[in-house]
C-alpha cells in the first residue's frame, strides 16, 4: 500500500502527482506514530523526560495535521499547506534536537525519523506553487 498511489488515483490529480508532497505525506504518517511511541517510551523511563515527551507529542500532532492537509487534493489551499509544511519541518527539527539529548534507542530512532520528515517537509513546501 502506498499513500502516493492513493493520491495519484484522485480525480483532480490525474496522475500529475507532486512527488515531494507524496514523499512528505508518507513520512508525516510514520513520524506522527514514531513520536507517539517515543513519548510513551519516555514516560516509562526512570528519569525526568517531561520535555522530551512534550516535544514528541507536539511533533506528533503537527505531523498529523500536516499529513491530513498533504493528502487533500480537492480544491486548493496552497498557502496554508506550504506554511504548515514549513512549520512541521521546524517542529520536527526541535523534536529531533530534544530526542538527541538522550541515550535511549527509542529517542535515537525518533530523532532520525524527525530529521527525515523535516527534510521531506522542506522539499514539499519548496515544490508548492502559489494558487492562481
Automatic annotation (TrEMBL):
Transmembrane segments: none annotated. InterPro entries: Csp_YhjQ, YHJQ-like. Gene3D superfamilies: 1.20.1270.360. CDD domains: DUF326. This is Four-helix bundle copper-binding protein.
Amino acid at each position: 500500500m502506498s499513500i502516493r498511489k492513493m493520491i495519484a488515483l484522485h480525480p483532480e490529480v490525474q496522475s500529475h502527482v507532486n512527488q515531494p508532497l507524496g514523499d512528505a505525506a508518507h513520512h508525516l504518517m510514520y513520524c506522527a506514530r514514531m513520536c507517539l511511541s517515543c513519548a510513551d517510551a519516555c514516560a516509562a523511563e526512570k528519569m525526568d523526560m517531561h520535555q522530551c515527551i512534550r516535544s514528541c507529542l507536539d511533533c506528533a500532532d503537527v505531523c498529523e495535521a500536516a499529513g491530513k492537509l498533504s493528502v487533500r487534493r480537492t480544491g486548493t489551499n496552497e498557502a496554508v499547506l506550504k506554511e504548515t509544511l514549513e512549520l512541521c519541518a521546524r517542529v520536527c527539527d526541535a523534536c529531533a534536537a530534544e530526542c538527541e539529548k538522550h541515550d535511549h534507542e527509542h529517542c535515537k530512532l525518533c530523532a532520525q525519523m524527525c530529521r527525515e520528515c523535516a527534510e521531506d517537509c522542506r522539499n514539499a513546501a519548496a515544490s508548492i506553487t502559489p494558487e492562481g
